[in-house]
Amino acid sequence: MFFELIMNLCRIALVIMGGMYAYMAVYVVVGFFATKKFPGAKKMHRYGIVIAARNEENVIGQLLDSIHAQDYPGELVTTFVVADNCTDATAQVARAHGAVCYERFDSRRCTKGYAMQFLFEHLFRDYGKDAFEAFIMLDADNLLKEDYISRMNDAFDAGEKIVTSYRNTKNLENSCIAASYAFHWMRTCRCENRAKSILHTACRVQGTGFLFAAELVENGWNYTNLTEDRSFCADAVAKGYRISYQDAAQFYDEQPESLSIAFRQRKRWAKGHLQAFVSFGPALFARIFKSLIPSKCASFSPEMNMERKTQLRGGRRLLGCLHDAFMCYDMFAITLPKALLSVCVKLLEILACMGLILTAGRPASLLTLLLGGFMLSFAKSCLGNILTAAYLLVTEHDRLPRLTLGRMLAYCVTFPIFDIIGKITYCMAAVMRVEWKPIPHNAVTAKHLAASR
User: Domain 1-453: what homologous superfamily?
Assistant: First the structure.
């Protein structure tokens, strides 16, 4: 009786988890047809570009050159680099290419978040908190399309406080692992962010290529776990900010090409996502219900002035409250470690089935049936990923390099590996200590792309 109850509870839990994310099908449909368009900016705003770099002498010069090549007025952009625990010439290269560079040496606190905390402390000390209206965060291996800052400025000038952008890939053709990362970023942009920008919910920033108003860091950068971007997202939404998306702003990012490097990076992501959920998940969950109270409705605080707040009454105010509650729910669902929970529930269901066989004399075929259902679910997931990759190849073809039919088929078939690695590394991160380790970047790849742009 006990084991049968556990099995039934596990099945209910899996159904509930599936239902929690059913609404995302709406994002896919809406995103297929449109995304938010921003009018040309009326004002050129002043930006600080912030970059954390560790031993990136091979690539950081090319990023800084792409910043200098922007069609945006150079006098309105200042680039800051924190050379974090570097043992190479990163700092010298950054300064030679026109960046303001601060060097940091702290082997104990070595995440990107701590490097950013150090950078903002020194930036505010030397330039003041009012020197820049907003900041753009980039990674040292990025390259910007020539109008990147102009397009981000369009979104900021339209009133957006946090804006993420289109993340393209430098080295998609180099390996199936690199291609799987490329599809992952494209999937977020095409199947989530495009629709969220129209529906005014919260997109998610993913490590690099995003803008945020200076007011968000007026008290410094306070996100220091292994995935500072996830923490930043969750905290911003919990405070009532929405995160928009500028599809017209495009940058290029280098992806891992080997399985070992992918596992190293994904373990860090998984551990950081768990940390972010523990730190900010409860606040997001509470904000879902607080947003239903008109006096505490989230988006009526940071993004709307007092005069506008007082004008909202009745049904419009109620709709605003429901919208904000859903925005918090959506970010909570993203922050929730679904992959780890689903694996744990499925394993518990299998163990309960084995207990039922041993204690109640149930036929062993019951376990076979359960494992068969597990394999069917796994096959459906893989097929879904394969079809998603094919969909992205069609819808994003104008942003991709020309690929042979063989490569396209290979990349589609191997895309499920990305989510499989994610589930494995979540399980590892839940029981292992994970430390930040650098991801190597390849100057040859960057030079090849720069020559082709």
Answer: Spore Coat Polysaccharide Biosynthesis Protein SpsA; Chain A (3.90.550.10)
